[in-house]
TrEMBL record:
Protein name: CRM domain-containing protein
NCBIfam families in alphabetical order: RNA_bind_YhbY
Keyword Secreted: no
Ranges that cross the membrane: none
InterPro entries named in the record: RNA-binding_CRM, RNA-binding_domain, RNA-binding_YhbY, YhbY-like_sf
GO molecular function, one term: RNA binding
PANTHER family attached to this UniProt entry: RNA-BINDING PROTEIN YHBY (PTHR40065)
SUPFAM superfamilies attached to this UniProt entry: YhbY-like
Keyword RNA-binding set for record: yes
Length: 107
């Protein structure tokens, strides 16, 4: 996947600002079920927020890196325990895609 341009990242961050986390990674860490749910959310919404619990910064970073690698998504932004992930859907769903639903925010 080609890296996102600065302009694309800015647009995705603007849209991501209004989103709430749809995947929460808790004490169990990164399980197959969490990866599967993240992939489903990315396929439906293309741009999602993920919240990673835990106080250990290095452990959170390791989980974030692992989920980015497991899903093939692009980490657009990381702020504290929240990460904004983007992965272009093979077939965009006009009703579910956050890029379509919140396109007016990126103008």
């Amino acid at each position: 996947m080609a890296a996102l341009s600065i302009h694309e990242r800015k647009r995705l961050r603007q849209i991501g600002h209004v989103l709430n986390p749809v995947v929460m990674i808790g004490g169990q860490g990164l399980t197959d079920a969490v990866i599967e749910e993240t992939l489903r959310a990315l396929n439906d919404h293309e741009l999602i927020k993920v919240k990673v619990a835990g106080e250990d910064r290095e452990a959170r970073t390791a989980v974030i890196d692992a989920i980015v690698e497991a899903t093939g998504a692009e980490a657009v932004q990381k702020i504290g325990k929240i990460i904004l992930l983007y992965k272009k859907a093979a077939k965009q769903n006009q009703h579910l895609s956050n890029l379509v639903r919140h396109a007016h925010l990126a103008n």
